[in-house]
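task queued by scheduler; priority normal; single chain, no ligands, no partner chains; default sampling; output format set to structure tokens
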Amino acid sequence: MVGSGGTSVKAALVFTLLAGCFWRSYGRAVATHAEVLLGMARKGVDLVANGRLTPESMPELTYPLERAQAFAEAARARAGGQAPDSLLALEALLVRYRMFLDTLDRVRRDESRDAAGRALEAPLADVEKAGEAVRAALRTEGRLR
């Protein structure tokens, strides 16, 4: 154990333990953010297809993005210059999801239900592909089984 002296050593030990806790749960957190974003994208398409997406519904779809962005920023800060591939993949998913939301909001206003569903097929596929890239990176890193 660390004795009564060496305050800086104790501080470094606490910092190391806290950093270790973050990275221990990192893979599960990344996977959860990815799954939530994928689920919300699918829900958004369903809402548009059923004519139930209103401007008041948009915060429900944007909030998970904001949470995932905050997590990614924290992870990037902790990673320093060595961001894991899974973080890069999560950041790419965030970009795709933001683009999807922009398209979703535009399509909701401008298209009929049938046309909206067709217009959202490719953006949803892009989000799903980015989500799979996150899962693949996590598996490669041994953070997902």
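post-processing summary
- The domain at 26-140 is CATH 1.20.1420.10 (A middle domain of Talin 1).
- The two ends are 35 Å apart (CA to CA).
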